[in-house]
Design goal:
heterodimer, A: 117 residues, mainly beta, six-stranded mixed beta sheet, four-stranded antiparallel beta sheet, B: mainly beta, 11 strands, 0% helix, globular
């Protein structure tokens, strides 16, 4: 079984400030890790994913995340946020079994990022 | 290249009724997964279809059923609707065997009154 905990339900920040959204996971098997963004009344858009290799992953819109296996964390960061980054962000995991297993993601509860001018 | 399309975008039903939601996957994708996202929650996996068969299922009752057609499109059916079934239903598509990268549609907002 897998679980994902997003440690902050809401993160307010001022424009051009740095931000970190925290995600911890628990799994009995090796996992792939993802961050998705959801704008109001829309579906989920993939920001970035960790499959293997370098633990620092760069994604779209200037976001990056670092996989820390010992701490089972996958925190999302952006050095300077914009008003347009206001949205809800979801951390998710899937197991590495392969085949159709990739379609089953376990999501966290979400973090609402609000960027103030 | 069309992404994942879902219909309808909004739906209002009464308790006890039945509903069918539809999804067309992204071009080139052969696997469809369905998720339920209640207000203020993360998406919850309902089930996944590949080769017209249900391959995996989350912790949802049998009132939730689905189908996949030869063209890879899919339907989600919910019988005997409960107030608690009110949610955003998201469809995601992918290609089996490829590194995981789910593409999501914009969802169907179901309201049960």
């Amino acid at each position: 079984a897998q679980s994902v905990t997003q440690l902050d339900s809401q993160v307010p920040v001022f424009e051009e400030a740095p931000v970190e959204l925290r995600c911890n996971y628990s799994s009995s098997v090796s996992v792939y890790l993802f961050w998705y963004v959801q704008y109001p009344n829309q579906g989920l858009q993939l920001l970035l994913k960790y499959l293997s290799g370098s633990t620092l992953v760069k994604g779209i819109n200037g976001f990056e995340a670092e996989f820390n296996k010992s701490q089972t964390s996958f925190h999302l960061r952006k050095p300077s946020v914009h008003i347009s980054d206001t949205a809800e962000y979801f951390c998710a995991v899937s197991d590495r079994t392969g085949g159709t297993s990739y379609g089953k993601l376990t999501f966290g509860q979400g973090t609402i990022l609000t960027v103030h001018p | 290249d069309a992404g994942v399309t879902q219909s309808p975008t909004h739906l209002i039903k009464t308790r006890g009724q039945q509903v069918t939601l539809r999804c067309s996957p992204k071009s080139g994708h052969d696997t469809v997964s369905w998720y339920q996202q209640a207000l203020g929650q993360g998406p919850q996996f309902i089930f996944q279809y590949y080769e017209e068969e249900e391959r995996q299922r989350g912790n949802f009752p049998d009132r939730f059923s689905g189908h996949q057609f030869p063209n890879y499109s899919s339907e989600l059916n919910v019988n005997a609707l409960l107030l608690g079934d009110s949610a955003l239903y998201l469809c995601a598509s992918s290609q089996v065997g490829q590194p995981p990268s789910l593409h999501f549609g914009n969802g169907t907002r179901l309201t049960v009154t």
